[in-house]
Every structure is written in C-alpha cells, then in structure tokens.
Design brief:
Helix content is 43%, strand content 17%. The chain has 445 residues and is α+β, with helices and mostly antiparallel strands. The protein folds into 2 domains: 26-233, Metalloenzyme, LuxS/M16 peptidase-like (Cytochrome Bc1 Complex, Chain A, domain 1, 2-Layer Sandwich), CATH 3.30.830; 256-435, 2-Layer Sandwich (Cytochrome Bc1 Complex, Chain A, domain 1), CATH 3.30.830. A hairpin with a 5-residue loop joins strand 1 (30-33) and strand 2 (39-44). The chain is globular. The two termini are 37 Å apart. The relative contact order is 0.18.
Length: 445
C-alpha cells in the first residue's frame, strides 16, 4: 500500500484495459540464483534516479512454534542492532546519510527489509543487507532492549485497543490447529522466554541465502545488480532450506461465536471466513467478493449498514490472502446507541446475499475497474513493484504471478462469484467476535 500514486492517466489505463479484455501486465523482470541459493530479481524502472532494494526472508510468525510466539517480529528489530562492521542503530542512519530511507515488516509468512536510495548507492545498500545477513551481533543486552520494545508495541497496538484485541481473538477462534492462530505481535510470556541461544538458532535456520530473495527495482542495469550481488552475497555460506510448517487446519463445520469479555466504547462485529491459500485459482474471485462487500462508499456493506440502514458508523472487510489458507474478514462498528444484534444480523445477511443472488453486470464491472486501478497503481512505484515481485515469489510461488492478476480478475463471472460465495462464505465456515459496551463479562458459544 506504500507510496501509491493515483492519477487520472492510471484510471484511464485501467478502464481501457477492461474494455480491451485486460491483457496481462508486462514487466521486464530478470531472475537468477547465486550458488549459495540466494534468489536475485531485478526490474528496471527509469522514472526516478533511485533504486529500491528489498530482502524477503521466507519466515514469519507461523514458523515460530507455540513456545516462542513473537520471535520473528523480535528478530526484525534485532537486524538493526548491529553487526561486525555496523554499530548498533547505525544501519538506518547510514542509509539516511546518503539520502535514503529504510524500514521492515513481519507478517505471518515473511519478514521483509526494504530501502530506497539514490541511484549511485545501490552497491552500498546491498553491502549493508549482506552484512547483516552474515555478521549480525546477538547479545543479551540488545535482545533484552528490543524485547521490551516489541512488548510495548503489542501493548499499544493490540492489548490497549479493544479492536486490536478482537483481531487477535478472532485468529485464535478461527484457527484451532494451524499457527495462524496467533499474530506476528507475539505473546508477552513467550517473548520473555527468548534467549540469545534461541535467536542464534533462529538466525542460523532462517536468515540464510537459500531462504531469502533479493529484489531490486529502479534506475540501474542487470549487469550492475549482478556484479553487486556477487560482490556482497556470494561469499555467504550456503545452508539448507529451513523446515516448513506442515500443520493443516481442519475444515470448520459449525458456526463459532465469542462475546468479548473486555470493555469497549464501540459496538463491534468482527467476522472471519476460511478461504483458500493465495495461489488458489479462487483468489481472484475472492478479491472481487471482498471489493463488492467493502471497496468504497458504494460498497454493499457500507450502503446496507451505514448509508441506508443507519445501523453502524462504519462497515467493510478485507481479504487476508496468505501462503496457507487464510481468512476473509467482515466488520461493522457502531456507537453505543446502535443495536449490536441488528448490526450482526444485517452484516451476515449482506454476505449471504452474494450466494443467493447473482451480482449485476454493472456492479461487477465497477469493482473490476477498482481492482484494476489498484493493481496498476501498485506497479507505478519502485517499492510497489518490488513488493509485488517479492510477494508473488514467496507467497504465490511465482515471481511473475502479479502480472496475471488483472486478467484473472477480469475473467471472474457473476456465476463464479455466486459459486465461491456458496462454497466459502457459508455460516458453518464463519467465526465471529462480538464486542460491545454491554457485553463485557459474557462468555463464548
């Protein structure tokens, strides 16, 4: 979502693509492997004299294990705490000193480090990334310090937020076996158990060339990227690919509902349906369904619950498309004066309607145009394109998968929307958290 550039020319391009049958997006992309297993991907972009560098590690919160929930996010912080040749806290300062910026994020499936630097500093950015891939310092002092930072982030963003707590709770309610049952924020007691030895084991297992992808997008050449990648990464010893999560979430066969026990100033209904993994052929249809329900002021949930129904102050949803089967979320937020039961009833009725009635051609075309515009927008920036390449490689299993997204969405029919809704948006596949001003202290059913 970062650095999205919206323009009239882009909207026109999206509309023209729809009229022409939405041919696949063509992006020049070069891909190769170093001998140690590191995958390198490069796409030229000449509009700005800069480069975006991303390193995608195929490790997220699902890979942690139930006794160290939060170590993946903690490790994201540790990667900025110093290495053999870079003092603690200096990585980001060194990037900023050459006119660049950097950051990182952790999800259920990946941990990603990204920086944007002026064109002459591509080699410098790769040198810094190779340095912390190979020579990271892990000490009791830095682990203790960052552990407290991560714990405070969890408190601020989730534990002190009624809606944040509801998001954690619904993952735990929807997943009974799979490690998606917890979020990247982790668990406070588990974070307290993390030791230097655990971090060294995690580093040696997951922060290895065979488990990483280097993505470079910007105003440079393939020859420069190849030379720089070889110069800085080739000497890093190879290691075997790490173990992968084998747990499979069993099918949900009955409706689940939990009434939150913590206080809230809002009435909230939060629902989650199990959906297939990102690389499923049904993902394009699920994107269309999510847009029908929640994309913009004219979306079905906003119209039914906010504009017309006056049952809530906000309503929508989003698709959490993951490496393993994910979730499609729906929500409604209301004031204390709004009836929680009626909010839930109308929210679920709107989802049910997708399976019961075929969507009109005009409405279907509208959301396809919205999705096309959004997809094309992401490809207009260096960071957006690099993210799409990395996500496609790690989550979809094909670095070029994003190029077919518009074509796949354009092929979605009203009948397919109805079929997928009947298959995956059934009540027995739904988990719901109810949070309200009058529900604290009630239980689960």
């Amino acid at each position: 979502m970062r650095e999205m550039v919206r323009s009239l020319s882009l909207v026109a391009l999206a509309l023209c693509a729809r009229e022409a049958g939405a041919a696949p997006v063509k992006v020049e992309l070069k891909e190769w492997r170093l001998k140690n297993g590191l995958r390198v991907l490069f796409s030229p972009m000449r509009q700005v004299p800069g480069v975006n560098v991303q390193v995608w590690y195929h490790v997220g919160s699902k890979d942690e294990g139930r006794t160290v929930r939060g170590i993946a996010h903690l490790f994201e912080h540790m990667m900025f705490k110093g290495s053999r040749h870079v003092p603690p806290e200096q990585h980001a300062r060194m990037v900023a000193a050459v006119g660049g910026s950097d950051n990182a994020f952790t999800t259920q499936d990946v941990t990603v480090y990204h920086s944007t630097v002026p064109k002459p500093y591509l080699d410098f950015a790769l040198k810094l990334e190779a340095e912390r891939m190979r020579h990271l310092h892990l000490t009791e002092h830095t682990i203790k310090s960052e552990r407290e930072v991560v714990k405070e982030e969890k408190r601020m963003r989730l534990e002190n937020s009624p809606i944040g707590r509801a998001l954690e709770a619904i993952h735990a309610l929807a997943y009974t076996r799979h490690p998606y049952s917890w979020t990247p924020a982790g668990d406070l007691p588990d974070l307290n158990r993390v030791t230097v030895a655990m971090c060294k084991s995690f580093y040696g297992t997951y922060y290895v060339p065979a488990n990483a992808a280097l993505v470079v997008v910007g105003d440079t050449s393939e020859a420069e990227v190849r030379a720089s990648a070889l110069r800085h990464f080739a000497a890093i010893p190879s290691a075997k690919e790490p173990p992968r999560v084998q747990l499979v979430e069993p099918p949900q066969t009955s409706y689940r509902e939990q009434v939150a026990s913590w206080p809230s100033q809002l009435n909230v209904v939060l629902g989650a349906y199990h959906v297939p993994e990102a690389r499923s052929k049904e993902t394009a249809t699920l994107r269309v369904i999510s847009a029908l329900l929640s994309a913009g002021a004219s979306s079905r949930l906003n119209q039914a619950l906010v504009r017309k129904g006056k049952l809530a102050v906000a309503a929508g949803g989003f698709l959490q498309s993951l490496e393993h089967p994910g979730l499609l979320f729906i929500y409604a937020l209301g004031l204390p004066s709004h009836d929680l039961a009626k909010m839930k009833e109308q929210l679920l009725a709107e989802v049910d309607r997708l399976a019961q009635e075929p969507v009109a051609a005009k409405e279907l075309r509208k959301v396809k145009n919205q999705l096309a515009t959004s997809a094309l927008t992401r490809l207009r920036t260096m960071s957006g394109l690099a993210h799409e390449i990395g996500r496609s490689l790690v989550i979809d299993g094909d670095a070029r998968a994003f190029q077919d997204e518009a074509k796949q969405i354009d092929a979605v029919s009203a009948a397919e929307v109805q079929r997928v809704a009947r298959t995956h948006l059934a009540r027995q596949n739904l988990s719901v958290i109810l949070l309200g001003t009058k529900t604290a202290g009630k239980g689960e059913r």
